[in-house]
Amino acid sequence: MCVTETDRMTDFTFLEPGAESTRAAFLDNGYLIVPAESASALNAIRVLVAESTAAPLGQDVPKDIDAFLNDFHQQVTIDELNRVRLSVIDGLNNQSWVRAAYFQLARNTIFSIVGNELAMQRRVNLSIQLPGDQSSILPVHADVWSGDSPYEIVLWVPLVDCHNTKSMYLMPPGPDRKAQGNMGQDFKGASEEDLFETIKNDVEWMNVPFGNVLVFSQTLMHGNRINEESETRWSLNCRFKSLFSPYADKRLGEFFEPITMRATTEMALAYNLPKGFDDA
Ligand SMILES: O=C(O)CCC(=O)C(=O)O
Ligand SMILES: [Fe+2]
User: Fold this and answer.
1) Domain 17-261 has what CATH class?
2) Model's pTM, two decimal places?
3) Which residues contact 15 (CB under 8 A, 6 or more apart)?
4) For atom 1 of ligand 1, which residue has the closest CA?
């Protein structure tokens, strides 16, 4: 068989099939929206959220979970909301299977754009945004501004269809880098609202139907606004990074935990150089 020069040049790649287009899309847009890789993991997590929400209200697990979550504003006041949210977060994080199930929602995508030896945030967070609620707004920010490392991505998982102000917004990399580059000068003494005013025409609202997940770079400015849709938003978020990439304030062991350490790393960590040469 004859191998031509063209065969030699095109047949061999370092990245696995599909990884190049995933890489390009993530770098261009700052995010990826992909179908959840495990429908059963997504379902199990959503059932647990519904159960942990319904139980304190003296209710059974709702038959129509989608309607229960979307219409939750009919059952709770804004004053009660944070207590409910914290108790559901506890309900989630008290189950040891949840983090592995959560990771399975986007394992291949995360392997592809972050790496395969990973650390995962120890707690999964929950956002609930009732229609018209001002108290749960997360103003424009980048997580790197408050102790996260630029090597982290966020896996953001909607439990209901999320779109427009029922979702979150993200700045695309081009305008974001321009705005952050001059931020000290341009926004000295400015409020978060002033900042949002200047970026609002550039931000992209994340349209993520239930069954899909969003992976985004938290180095890009993002946040949410008053939910002006008629339904309640429910979404989960959790951070992942390459295990041996630099850490900022959020440390390994405190905030992050290794989840996919490989055999060579384990062996290396346990290895001690030969001892006893000092006496010679
Ligand atoms: O869910 C949102 O609206 C914002 C989430 C966020 O800021 C984050 O996950 O880092
Ligand atoms: Fe954030």
Assistant:
1) mainly beta
2) 0.95
3) 23
4) 168
